[in-house]
Amino acid sequence: MNRRLISVVVLGIAFLIYLILPQKSQTLFINRITPRQQAEATVLITDLEGSRGGSGVVLNSSEIGSQILTNAHVCEILGRGGKIFTDDAGVHMPLSYRQSKLFDLCLINVLDDLKINTALATRAPRDYDELTVSGHPSLYATVIEKGYFSKKVLIQVFTGLRVCEEDEKTSFFCLVFGGVPVIRTFEARLITAVIKPGSSGSAVYDAQGGLAGLVFAGSGELDYGYIVPYEAIVWFLGQEAGEFTVPVNVDTTPGGQSLKKAYRWVKRHRAVSATVLPF
Questions:
Q1: In sequence order, what DSSP letters do the residues of 11-22 get, joined into one string?
Q2: Quick one: which H or E segment has residue 26?
Q3: Is residue 27, in this structure, part of any structural domain at all?
Q4: CB 112: neighbour CB atoms within 10 A?
């Protein structure tokens, strides 16, 4: 009797393992998204004139609208409206946006159903894991590139120019560049994929196709990139509250050529590691 009981138990366990293993394999297969799906989730975000912009990734879509994740500094150009271009040549208007106070992250709402959903990675990437970046460097058509995650670092980032206060209008920066440089310290992760201005907001996927980071800074030219870490994205989406801003017809932030010239001066004369890439 004991032998028969043991045989029944062993067969039962084997049968359960048989049922479980195919299910796990199927789940891993479903979570892995193709380059085509990554391109479909990638959007180009520009101002109304199409002269400045960055990238973004569609997080979720439904009949009542969609949400796009990008950088806070990319959302700055939406102050007086903007355009969002999808991979199928569709053009959409931003309804509202919410910028993080802690990280270079922003969530954009649009009314349209963009018919794509992007899952977060199930864990933070490890050093030297493989990755894929999907975005719009130099505001080109969607570009997908392979690379590797490197280590986390603290970097000093030139994030733009702020409007001069009354007592600053005779200062060097206000007279020469029309604004005061804003420099912030961020925790970031270096990646080996090459980026350019316009790559800001590009989605960074792990080997399983989960969203594991978001490009936000580089040297200002063709170079390796810095990404908003996975942990910051999880915190922003799940923990950080904030109000949404509706685009209005006003833009008082200094930009254009003054922004580029100011960054070049700051990079030469101060210990700045990188710049955000909206131009």
A1: HHHHHHHHHHHH
A2: helix 2-31
A3: no
A4: 16
Read off the pTM: 0.76
State the chain's mean pLDDT as an integer. 81
pLDDT for the residue numbered 180: 84
Pairwise CA distance, residues 179 & 244, whole Å: 26
Cα angle 35, 38, 44 (rounded to 5 degrees) comes to: 125
270 and 137 in a single domain? The answer is yes
Q: Map tokens 């040549």 to a residue.
A: 89
Write the DSSP string, 78-118. Answer: GBTBEEEE-TTS-EE---EEEE-SSSS-EEEEESS------
* pLDDT attached to residue 2: 54
Work out whether strand 274-276 and strand 143-162 pair parallel, antiparallel, or are unpaired.
parallel
How many domains does one find in the chain?
2
DSSP conformation class of 64: T
Range of the domain at 245: 130-276
Contacts of residue 7, defined as CB under 8 A and 6 or more positions apart, other chains included, come to none
State the CATH number of the domain containing residue 248: 2.40.10.10
